[in-house]
């Protein structure tokens, strides 16, 4: 199969699926040999497969005049082939995040810029020139840094990116084949001088490590790694699917985090326990790269018979109760300025927690109170179908009409009597109905919504403290 | 945890499980620092954990006087500590198999020798001094050679070996810790001069590759690989378990191989398809290391709509029919000199095949013949509970009493009339009962065991050709 046939085979189904009169294929072109070959191939294919080709060069504001030269080279080529051309400028040095290397920042900003261009179209096919050698280098990089099996998974040929798709049609081709093609077709391309800079880890892998491995251990080491990556990708996909099913079965989302049923989790094979935890962590915060050590620590917490707590990166926190592991954000803020956390309606039957207080709450509908509440942490309310009970944080000036008293009382006075620390008060949950406060859990119940013989639905709420 | 505590923790449960008055712990001792440290530790532990320690040194007949020196060093140490000592001699150069490196042969023969000593006891705990660095080197070796995820799996701390178990209590400890221990305890140990020989791949990994990776990429690369190995080991175990269940559901063993139901297999996720095929291949021949390429080829065969056949290493052969993939040995011989394949009894209900003829056979019990046989490849027999119908290959002089004729006929004459090639005749299956031939499938049915109105059990046999 020629390179052109290969690219056509990968791309064609997606061009056809789009079924628009004017499918946009957006290619990121650095000007290097990989992207220029793909550019050339796509420029031919646009007539046979029928799509609108847009080329985009991202200028990183690094490497001074050399970068300007590269940008001009791509622009000229686009002009010459009558291809729409977009130039995007990003400033890597200005926009580098803490802990991010220059390479990582450049990569992130490049993708963002490409995605911004893509977003100008209703939907488009974003195409990059990653090839087999990139795959091999990425895998080696991850193996050496430390990774789990998911990290060994090869890049996928096609994946969604926002409302668009990202296609990498050269993934099974080696760089040598691309260079050969560029020579035969007499294509212009530029050489990024930083590719020779051995201070960059990636360049050391490409220019030192891989040649050494090929000479000293296995001339086909690239092939060996690609094969491993393909198998791992399939197994990873399968395991993720299985783990997701189990995750749905043994976790519950709450307003401020996720609950994992310890017993359900521990019944799974260890391989799945680890993957469920990983999915939960990724689900609560995609922006964090969760480490193996954190997953292992969480599993130890789940296995431990004691109830404990632990801090995670980015203010995430974990604590265990007898039945659950609760992962949530200690310092999470509500959407409004007014509240430190978002008020939420009380479902008739539900289970949730107030993380800051280490309280777990169970609500259910009962026929009659089974017994009198044994503490202020348990209460029964007459509740009609239409009534929406809300939990919200305390505000200055809140008053309650206590059961067994006349008139009302400031909740802040209850806090003082109950020795609730000042810093915790803004987080304290109150059960409310409209403007009325029904209950300050642990401290005081109002005389509203009492249960009597005519009550149809009895809402029971128990705080496990 | 000290080294001694670590070893005790790993070993203790197995010593206790054995529950014998006189548990034998057999240690293989090369004389190098790893095994001498373990020897020393076990020599202490034998009093507290209570077991009988036996040390065994395997002399490989390589490295001339240096090897003799090593053997003596171990023997002296054993003598000094009053530990039972065994010396085993193997001849690596004489016993090397084709395609085997000197290292591989030495390793195989060493294990065989240790297992021979172990077999002198009813059951024993075989102990080796593999440590964390060995793990790392093995993983790197496999990654570079080319492996699937199973190959990335770290060595297990405990595994069965024949009727014994193999325990590797030092697996989580690094070599440096062992050297430290040896120094502190002033232990004698020998240095194998071949360890410095960079012609050996293993030594290049230890002395060149790993130091380079630590310096240039990640000082904790060993830790990174061990962690990967542990996760992969758990996931591999899980996937193997799942695949085994599916394998049992979609395969059937026959007298000469294995049948895989194509549709059942193709319904599985690709990750499991691959693992089921791998398990089947390992099941039919453990001695072969099946390659990824062979598994992929088999999967392609299963997916292909055409029926095809393919040769595998070691005379194994595969062919497909509409419903099945059949893996078997083309040239398999029977145990006796007399037959090219082993006769086998016909189960009342069964499904099997004659590989050389590409025939699949279905046997079942029916109430009455549903219809008259439409060809000589289908037949009905009256069969009583006690009668053992046997399929066996043709022998010179075999005669049958054909239905609709008087007297008997030579089967060889039937072959000639039916144009069965001479080379195939010795493999041709005949259905027999005692000395009587009931059926030459495809050619002639005998007048014996006909079905009539008094027949209780009707055995139907259909050849799909």
UniProtKB/TrEMBL annotation, chains A, B:
<dbReference type="Pfam" id="PF01171">
    <property type="entry name" value="ATP_bind_3"/>
</dbReference>
<dbReference type="GO" id="GO:0032267">
    <property type="term" value="F:tRNA(Ile)-lysidine synthase activity"/>
</dbReference>
<keyword id="KW-0436">Ligase</keyword>
<dbReference type="GO" id="GO:0005524">
    <property type="term" value="F:ATP binding"/>
</dbReference>
<dbReference type="InterPro" id="IPR012796">
    <property type="entry name" value="Lysidine-tRNA-synth_C"/>
</dbReference>
<dbReference type="GO" id="GO:0006400">
    <property type="term" value="P:tRNA modification"/>
</dbReference>
<keyword id="KW-0067">ATP-binding</keyword>
<feature type="binding site">
    <location>
        <begin position="30"/>
        <end position="35"/>
    </location>
    <ligand>
        <name>ATP</name>
    </ligand>
</feature>
<keyword id="KW-0547">Nucleotide-binding</keyword>
<feature type="domain" description="Lysidine-tRNA(Ile) synthetase C-terminal">
    <location>
        <begin position="389"/>
        <end position="463"/>
    </location>
</feature>
<protein>
    <recommendedName>
        <fullName>tRNA(Ile)-lysidine synthase</fullName>
        <ecNumber>6.3.4.19</ecNumber>
    </recommendedName>
</protein>
<dbReference type="InterPro" id="IPR012795">
    <property type="entry name" value="tRNA_Ile_lys_synt_N"/>
</dbReference>
<keyword id="KW-0819">tRNA processing</keyword>
<comment type="similarity">
    <text>Belongs to the tRNA(Ile)-lysidine synthase family.</text>
</comment>
<dbReference type="GO" id="GO:0005737">
    <property type="term" value="C:cytoplasm"/>
</dbReference>
<dbReference type="InterPro" id="IPR014729">
    <property type="entry name" value="Rossmann-like_a/b/a_fold"/>
</dbReference>
<comment type="function">
    <text>Ligates lysine onto the cytidine present at position 34 of the AUA codon-specific tRNA(Ile) that contains the anticodon CAU, in an ATP-dependent manner. Cytidine is converted to lysidine, thus changing the amino acid specificity of the tRNA from methionine to isoleucine.</text>
</comment>
<dbReference type="InterPro" id="IPR011063">
    <property type="entry name" value="TilS/TtcA_N"/>
</dbReference>
<dbReference type="Pfam" id="PF11734">
    <property type="entry name" value="TilS_C"/>
</dbReference>
<dbReference type="InterPro" id="IPR012094">
    <property type="entry name" value="tRNA_Ile_lys_synt"/>
</dbReference>
<keyword id="KW-0963">Cytoplasm</keyword>
């Amino acid at each position: 199969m020629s390179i052109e046939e290969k690219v056509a085979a990968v791309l064609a189904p997606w061009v056809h699926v789009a079924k628009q009169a004017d499918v946009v294929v957006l290619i990121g072109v650095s000007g290097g040999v990989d992207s220029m070959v793909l550019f050339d191939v796509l420029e031919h294919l646009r007539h046979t497969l029928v799509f609108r080709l847009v080329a985009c060069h991202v200028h990183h504001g690094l490497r001074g005049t050399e970068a300007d030269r590269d940008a001009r080279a791509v622009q000229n080529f686009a002009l010459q082939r009558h291809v729409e051309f977009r130039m995007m400028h990003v400033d890597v040095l200005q926009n580098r995040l803490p802990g991010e290397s220059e390479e990582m920042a450049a990569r992130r900003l490049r993708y963002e810029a490409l995605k911004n261009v893509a977003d100008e179209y209703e939907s488009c096919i974003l195409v990059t020139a990653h090839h087999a050698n990139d795959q091999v280098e990425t895998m080696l990089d991850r193996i050496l840094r430390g990774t789990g099996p998911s990290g060994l998974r090869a890049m996928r040929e096609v994946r969604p990116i926002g409302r668009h798709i990202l296609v990498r049609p050269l993934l099974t081709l080696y760089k040598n084949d691309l260079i050969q093609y560029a020579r035969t077709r007499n294509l212009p391309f530029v050489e990024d001088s930083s590719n020779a800079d051995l201070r960059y880890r990636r360049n050391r892998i490409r220019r030192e490590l891989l040649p050494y491995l090929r000479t000293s251990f296995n001339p086909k080491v690239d092939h060996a790694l690609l094969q491993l990556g393909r198998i791992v990708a399939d197994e990873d996909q399968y395991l993720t699917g299985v783990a997701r099913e189990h995750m749905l079965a043994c976790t519950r989302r709450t307003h401020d985090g996720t609950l994992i049923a310890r017993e359900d989790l521990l019944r799974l094979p260890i391989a799945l326990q680890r993957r469920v935890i990983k999915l939960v962590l990724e689900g609560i915060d995609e922006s964090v790269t969760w480490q193996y050590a954190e997953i292992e620590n969480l599993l130890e917490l789940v296995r431990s018979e004691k109830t404990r707590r632990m801090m995670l990166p980015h203010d995430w926190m974990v604590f265990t109760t007898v039945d659950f592991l609760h992962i949530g954000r200690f310092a999470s803020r509500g959407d409004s300025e007014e509240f430190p956390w978002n008020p939420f309606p009380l479902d008739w039957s539900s289970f949730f927690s107030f993380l800051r207080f280490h309280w777990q709450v169970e609500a259910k509908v009962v026929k009659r109170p089974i017994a009198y509440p044994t503490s202020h942490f348990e209460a029964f309310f007459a509740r009609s179908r239409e009534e929406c009970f809300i939990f919200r944080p305390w505000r200055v000036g809140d008053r309650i009409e206590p059961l067994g008293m006349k008139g009302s009382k400031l909740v802040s006075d209850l806090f003082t009597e109950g020795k609730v620390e000042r810093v915790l008060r803004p987080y304290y949950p109150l059960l409310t109905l409209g403007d009325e406060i029904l209950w300050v859990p642990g401290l005081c119940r109002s005389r509203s919504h009492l249960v009597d013989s005519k009550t149809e639905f009895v809402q029971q709420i128990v705080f496990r403290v």
